[in-house]
Amino acid sequence: MNKITISMLAKELRLSISTVSKAINDSHEISPQTKLRVNKMAKELNYVPNHFASSLGTGNGKTIGVVIPEVVDSFFAQAINGIEAVAVEKGYHVMIYLTHESFEKEKMILKDFESGRVDGVLLSVSRETIQTTHIVDLMKKGVPLVFFDRVINEIFTTKITTNDYEMAYQATTYLIKKGCKKILFLSFSNLLSISNKRLNGFKDAQKDQGIKLNNQNVLLFKNDPKKDYQLLKNHLNSRNQADGILASVEKFGFTIYQACEALRLRIPEDVQVISFSNHDAASFMNPPLTTVSQPAFEMGKTAATILMKALGRKNAATDEDNIILPSTFAVRKSTRV
Amino acid sequence: MNKITISMLAKELRLSISTVSKAINDSHEISPQTKLRVNKMAKELNYVPNHFASSLGTGNGKTIGVVIPEVVDSFFAQAINGIEAVAVEKGYHVMIYLTHESFEKEKMILKDFESGRVDGVLLSVSRETIQTTHIVDLMKKGVPLVFFDRVINEIFTTKITTNDYEMAYQATTYLIKKGCKKILFLSFSNLLSISNKRLNGFKDAQKDQGIKLNNQNVLLFKNDPKKDYQLLKNHLNSRNQADGILASVEKFGFTIYQACEALRLRIPEDVQVISFSNHDAASFMNPPLTTVSQPAFEMGKTAATILMKALGRKNAATDEDNIILPSTFAVRKSTRV
DNA sequence: TTTATTTACGAAAGCGGTTTCGTAATAACC
DNA sequence: GGTTATTACGAAACCGCTTTCGTAAATAAA
What we know:
Distance between the termini of chain A: 67 Å
Strand order of the largest sheet of chain A: 2-1-3-4-5-11
Number of helices of chain A: 12
Oligomer: homodimer
Radius of gyration of chain A: 25 Å
Number of strands of chain A: 12
Structural class of chain A: alpha/beta
Helix content of chain A: 40-55%
Largest sheet of chain A: 6 strands, parallel
């Protein structure tokens, strides 16, 4: 309970507060002997500088904020690992904030960041995010921000994404080549560029293969597993039931398996399935799931690296830049051979 | 870039700094009209109090630290959701720290917490943690700490766990009833009480069913997927190959499936499998995985609630208490009918 | 030896808030 | 009408550390 402060240390050592502070921060102004004395005593008394005081003094808290929609998702969990790896190495701390796909929450979180609580931000927006003033406001205060995965193109900063359009195009084309006539796309947002890119890849692939689209082709999933499940079951029960499904989010893949099981639809005989997914279990599923998987760790790592670089500069602004890391397509048994 | 401070606000309003501060904090000393004026101006100028300054003043930063071994794990990811739910409601922020199962990292993290960076801590120790001075030191500084899942019994505080012994006992008994003669237990630590509880449940069940144990019964997995995979494959290739496996950690389940696939061992015909797992995909695996699943969200929620309660008190110490939330056993096709 | 540098340290002013305490002005009391 | 409570606000200390700036002593240069 005995919090010991720098002034107590100073008194004990019969030195001034400033000398002790400098010694601890290894300033060149302090002689080696004094540093030794100070550090020895600091160890002895188990002195740890107060974080708020030092942050207030220096103006930065060596902390970055990571704002994501969800953590129970392999992509984001793995991305966190990538972020954390570089942050720790640079002596930064990581605060994780979950929006649970709520725009309101996202606004509140970024607003709070204006307090200076974090030095920089890594953001993957919610599925509802369409306004951007909360982001712009934060950046105006000089807080550097880097987008990853779910980006807002209109905002002038660095964005780390993967080749969403191409992968959706490739996956869709693959389904068509394997005989699908009616493919269903499971979308998680009709606002986000990432979602639209995947959707466009999906549409263009069909156009290019001479398949005409109709509005039955796309199902917009809510953020509610039960409702989504019903939605999909209803669709699969209708006469124009799909013979192929492309899921744009990992957890949708499970919903598909669940619905197919309930309806006794066989995968891939009745319905072929491809999902965007970073799940370790994909290859052990029944049947093994054909996936598009994103370079999650790398994306997190890259985003964090760029942010760190910005934080190292006097003017911490980030560049306008688009970094695209390729995803991989893994064919398994949920599509035909 | 224009950070506006309370003194700028005060000047603008021709009020004293203290009045403005009190108005913003809704002190009873300030008249309603003045509060209105202040808040209006604050909105207008987009004033946000500096987090470090106010934390330094009040002595708390409305932040809790969550220290876990890993985030790419359904249990921990779900627990975070539970923690976050109650923290946000109480106006607290959550910092997540990953030890990656390293005791050294854990020590560094807790040491850093002595800086006052967090008001309270939720901890699930690394698989290597055997010493406890880093924890005791932190608590001595008056930082309340609550354990969840991976606890240290010797430390006097609240611990949230699940009924590990009973579930392991139940799962093992189940395997025996289904005909297993040689069951293998995949352990992740031989230091942690949680791991030992599961191991003891495993052993006692066998004793009670009249099965004699030998030291081939337990495999201690490292934190390295490839090595673990090899280790298991070697075991399954030996003459005293197991006909049943109980995995004490979610990700080990995947390793089992992988090894069995490589060795062309059929589940459950050749080897029956049960895993501790909170994975959504368990029921869609091939075959669907029989699991023991922990009440992750509830455990996180409970731990956070207790911590919040302690933070609300003048003396923030937590009680010595053991809260045990029951897990559930879900029989699926990786065990015989 | 004198002057110019360098070295090692301390005093004090922030950083941006919170909080204690004092005090006019107004309201309530007998 | 004089005294006591309230109310509403300001001055200033303080939280614990950083940083600027000044200076005495030690060293180097002239």
